[in-house]
Write a structure and sequence with these properties.
Layout (H helix, E strand, L loop, with lengths): L20 H8 L3 E5 L2 E4 L1 H20 L3 E2 L5 E3 H7 L1 H4 L5 E4 L5 E4 L4 H8 L11 E10 L14 E11 L2 H21 L4 E5 L9 E8 L5 E6 L5 E3 H4 L13 E16 L3 H4 L2 E3 L5 E3 L1 E8 H11 L1 E2 L2 E2 L10 E5 L6 H14 L4 E4 L5 H11 L3 E5 L7 E6 L4 E6 H4 L6
Parallel strand pairs: 3-7, 19-20, 19-21
Antiparallel strand pairs: 1-2, 4-6, 5-6, 7-8, 8-16, 9-10, 10-13, 11-12, 11-13, 13-16, 14-15, 17-18, 21-22, 22-23
The protein binds adenosine-5'-triphosphate (ATP) and magnesium ion.
Length: 412
């Protein structure tokens, strides 16, 4: 892909309204464009990363037997009245009225819709368990949208719902999903902790949060020095220095919640009449689990943990491109043509971004630092002799490589 066509509108100056590094990078690097507070366009660079995060999530969930569907964002009030949340959800729910004065909301989460989707079909124990997920934009009228994609009013979430005939089956699936979450966050190269949590607006009786550890996190995690106990401070109220339930000493750390998994039990199935006929012919409410993961927030969390002084290095699997070919000479020169040639060759094997812009080397390298691709192939002074430079940003090494050898170079 030619950078001149990629629409990566980087900024020269530091955006004034960004307080944290990941937010500064998003704006300065041309990843997103704010529409109004808490609502963003994902520009091509960010969207490439988001699609890759989504693919990792899909792969890990499909592997354990989950199926993807897509529910409506526009939800009728009636289902929310059935669950009791129309009255309870409060101001975060984006409510609207159609031309016939019928009330709706824009989904902040989808327990109501999914329950109505399965209740006519999951009528027998023979049809359970089920595990259904979607990746979709969610809407929440947050009191204080901030830190870019971290707390948006429209944001991308993966939400999974599971349906079971008994608690033991729910427990088994809960552990499978928990492991899938671990695999996903490991593949994203994140440093995180899993903590016991309150269930908040979604409800249910047991839940855990996946917290990416970083100083700008809005949540405080109380963890034990033994490493065997961790909980959201909201839940445990333990003071720093106190004795932890496992005998260790309590310490505090800041975290960003990127995932939340719940055992819902019958919180929705009972009021909404989602029941099944069991082996013994008795009618019972279906037992449910629900599992959220904030995809746009994950992008921020990865950026927050993978930048050094605003210089980005994306983890391999989700980098927007594999190789950044940078032409130091202007279009129309022989060296530029060599660079263009290289782009075409490398693109047969890799995802390549080719900086073909008529900009100075300084501007190109500054932008490359924000774009965060591990390998840079710099086509400059010795190109006519058949020599280019390969910079490995991760290892911080630069070597001269002959163009003939480049297609066999060990780009990891
Ligand atoms: P928070 O405490 O941060 O408001 P929550 O408990 O309301 O989160 P859930 O309802 O569990 O969040 O939603 C599932 C996931 O969606 C969260 O773990 C988080 O990653 C993401 N998420 C929630 N609210 C937002 C938001 N306003 N902007 C971006 N991502 C969000
Ligand atoms: Mg919230």
């Amino acid at each position: 892909m030619k950078q001149s066509l990629a629409f990566i509108p980087t900024l020269r100056d530091m955006p004034k309204d960004a307080e944290i590094n990941s937010h500064k990078i998003l704006l300065k690097g041309g990843y997103v464009k704010q529409h109004v507070a808490g609502v963003y366009t994902y520009l091509p660079l960010a969207y490439r990363v988001i699609k890759k995060i989504e693919d990792i999530i899909r792969e890990e969930l499909d592997k354990i037997g989950c199926s993807e569907l897509l529910m409506p964002a526009l939800q009728a009030k009636e289902a929310w009245v059935e669950s009791g949340r129309w009255a309870n959800y409060g101001k975060e729910l984006m409510r609207l009225t159609d031309r016939h004065d019928r009330e709706f909301c824009l989904g902040p989460t989808h327990e109501e819709v999914i329950t109505t989707v399965v209740r006519d079909s999951a009528t027998s124990y023979k049809k359970l368990p089920l595990a259904l997920y979607q990746i979709q934009s969610k809407f929440r009228d947050e009191f204080r949208p901030r830190f870019g994609l971290m707390r948006g009013r429209e944001f991308i979430m993966k939400d999974l719902y599971t349906f079971h005939t008994n608690e033991a089956d729910l427990d088994e699936w809960y552990l499978k999903v928990r492991q899938a979450y671990i695999n996903i966050l490991d593949r994203l190269n994140l440093h995180y902790g899993i903590v016991s949590a309150c269930s908040g607006q979604i409800g249910g009786n047991s839940s855990e949060e996946f917290m990416v550890l970083c100083d700008i996190g809005e949540d405080t995690i109380a963890y034990s020095t033994t490493g065997k106990y961790a909980a959201n401070l909201e839940l445990c109220g333990l003071e720093e220095g106190a004795t932890a339930p496992d005998g260790g000493t309590i310490k505090y750390a800041k975290g960003i919640e990127v995932g939340h998994i719940f055992k819902l039990g019958t919180k929705y199935s009972e009021p909404m009449g989602l029941s099944f006929v069991d082996v013994d012919s008795s009618k019972k409410p279906v037992i449910m689990g629900c599992y959220g993961m904030g995809i746009s927030r994950l992008l921020m969390a990865v950026l927050e943990q993978n930048n050094n002084d605003l210089k980005v290095l994306w983890p391999t699997e989700i980098a927007p491109f594999k190789i950044h070919v940078i032409a130091l000479d202007k279009p129309g020169t022989t060296n530029f043509e060599i660079a263009e040639d290289l782009q075409n060759k490398l693109e047969q094997k890799y995802e390549v971004l080719f900086d073909d812009r008529a900009e100075s080397a300084g501007v190109k390298f500054n932008d490359a630092d924000l774009i965060g691709i591990r390998y840079r192939v710099i086509v400059g002074r010795r190109a006519a002799e058949g020599i280019v430079e390969v910079k490995d940003v991760k290892e911080n090494t630069t070597e001269e490589v002959s163009i003939a050898d480049l297609t066999n170079y060990h780009f990891e």
